[in-house]
Structures are given as C-alpha cells and as structure tokens.
Specification:
By secondary structure, the chain is of the alpha/beta class. About 40% of the residues lie in helices and about 20% in strands. The protein folds into 2 domains: about 200 residues, Rossmann fold (3-Layer(aba) Sandwich); about 70 residues, Helicase, Ruva Protein, domain 3 (Orthogonal Bundle). The structure holds S-adenosylmethionine.
C-alpha cells in the first residue's frame, strides 16, 4: 500500500534522511492523496501499462503508480534522492529507478528494451523550470507514446489547450495539439505540495493522436513558421516571418504567400488554426529561393 502522498509521512522521510530541497531541480513534492489518485484515474493506469515517471522525488507518485501499473521506470536527476527511493519503493518489484537527467537519456532505446517498443504512458509532476523542453523532447522523439499526464503550472496548462484568438494561444498550444488532444483534468493549489510553489498548478492529460490532425509533409518546417509567427506577438504575421524565422525567403515572397493563402497582409499569427498554418507553410516552402 502507498504510504506517502500525505504531509506526515513525507516530513518523516525528509527528516529521516536530512533531505535538503534543491531549488534548481524544481522540487515540490506532492502531499495530497486526492490529487495523486486523480492523476492515476485521469491517466487510466492499468496493469497492462508501462509508465515512465519523470522526477520521482521521494517516490510519492511512484508508489501510486507501482500499485496500479504493470511496470514503472522513474528517472531522477538528484542523486541525493536515490537512497531515499530505494527505501520508499522497497515494497515494489515492478519499478526501476534511473539516476539521470531525463533530457540526456536515450528514451527510445529504453522503451524498446523494456517494453518491446509498445506504446508507453508518461506520468509526472514535472520540474517547472524545464516543462517545455521535456515535453518537446517527448513530442519530437520517436518514442511510442499513448498519453502524457503531467502536473504543470496552471497557466502553462491553459496555454497548452488554448485555441486561436485567445491570449494564451501560441507555439506551445500548436505543438501540443499537433501531437495530442489535451485536457486539464485536475487542479492543485499550492498547499498540495511541500514546499509550496508560488503558483497554482494543474494536471493536463495529452492523449496522442494516431494520425496527425492536419496534412503537412514537413512538420519541422511548419513549426519553424509557427515559432516565427509568435516570436513578436504584437506584429503582423508578415513581420514575424520576415524578422524571426531564419527561413531564407524574401519579404515580397512572404507577402505573396500570405495573399495566396487568402489573408490580408495585416493578419496576425494568433488568429490562424493549426490547419491554416499547415497550408500556409506549404505555400511558403514552395517560395524558398
Ligand atoms: N514526483 C515527485 C512528487 O510529485 O512528489 C517530485 C516532483 S518535483 C516537482 C520534480 C522532480 O523532478 C524532483 O524530484 C527533481 O529532482 C526532478 N528533476 C528535476 N530535473 C530533472 C531532470 N532534468 N531529469 C530528471 N529529474 C529531474
């Protein structure tokens, strides 16, 4: 039975090992069982699942995962947590702890070896200082992923599921929605963690699409266009593409492409849907000199 996920046993473990929180690793440990059970339910974890957990901390969420999943692999950067995890996870034989920076780990090889290349689920209370790099690495890898269910800052979760025209809509929304269907599933105010973060948090579940939702033959190019379009939010799409894209294309050709796609030259990137970015990218690519 999971013993962690509440303030009393968490503080007891921290004191037993004299653990010192490292701010640089974004350490805020979950101490709320309802939130932990909510994450397990939202991720629909069953004994058929192989779960990758990023940043197990002292193992609070890991215990809940071990109870429900077939196999768990937990990747933790802080070596001070490894002896603690050996202790808190000693009752489970379905978990492997890896002491490594997740951004440096070859996750594809790990998934092949450990799960015979079958789709995995990613579940984590992410370190907030590297939320976007971790998600982009997961998206852009060839890792077979069924879903990602992660705790992030509430405002980041809102950006992920925002649509065109909203102030939260941007390159992150489009990347998340290209790969998956995002949904905010659990809210977690600061008192659910120790130490308490300064901001509210939310859990977002991203179920991966079987096929990309839009037709593009060059997603990398499309994302260069998207990033450039949002680089200078207050500027027009034409100016964003001209100044920030690094795409070798003249101002005149950019204007032509925008008009051919059916927009006025004053159009802003934040009004375009993913499909519209895919279509515009195709036209722009043909104009590269
Ligand atoms: N899962 C635990 C929980 O919910 O109580 C801890 C979550 S805490 C927000 C983030 C965890 O990620 C910390 O344990 C931190 O040391 C770890 N971490 C930070 N950067 C990491 C990285 N690059 N690779 C792997 N783990 C990392």
């Amino acid at each position: 039975m999971a013993t962690l996920g509440n303030p009393i046993s968490t503080i007891a473990v921290l004191e037993k090992y004299g653990f010192k929180f490292q701010k640089k690793f974004g350490q805020n440990f979950l101490i709320d069982e309802d939130v932990l059970n909510g994450i397990m339910d939202a991720a629909e974890i069953t004994k058929d699942d192989f779960v990758l957990e990023i940043g197990p901390g002292i193992g609070s969420m890991t215990q809940f995962l071990c109870e429900r999943a077939g196999e768990v692999m937990a990747v933790e950067i802080d070596s001070n947590l490894i002896p603690i995890l050996e202790d808190t996870l000693s009752a489970y034989d379905n978990v492997t702890v890896v002491n490594e920076d997740v951004l440096k780990l070859d996750l594809e090889t790990v998934a092949k070896e450990k799960n015979q290349g079958r789709p995995i689920k990613v579940v984590a209370n992410l370190p907030y200082y590297i939320t976007t790099p971790i998600l982009m690495q997961l998206f852009e890898s060839n890792l077979p992923i069924e879903s990602i269910t992660v705790m992030v800052q509430k405002e980041v979760a809102e950006r992920m599921q925002a649509g065109p025209g909203s102030k939260d809509y941007g390159a992150l929304s489009l990347a998340v929605q290209y790969y998956s269907e995002p949904e905010i599933v659990v809210m977690a105010p600061p008192h659910c963690f120790i130490p308490q973060p300064k901001v509210a948090s939310a859990v977002i579940r991203m179920k991966f699409h079987e096929e990309p939702p839009v037709d593009t033959d060059d997603p990398k190019f499309m994302f260069r266009v998207i990033r450039a379009s949002f680089n200078q939010r207050r500027k027009t799409l034409a100016n964003g593409l001209k100044n920030g894209s690094g795409i070798p294309i003249s101002k005149e050709a950019i204007q032509e492409a925008i008009e051919e796609a059916g927009y006025p030259l004053t159009v802003r990137g934040e009004t375009l849907t993913l499909q519209e970015f895919a279509d515009l990218s195709k036209i722009l690519k043909q104009k590269i000199s």
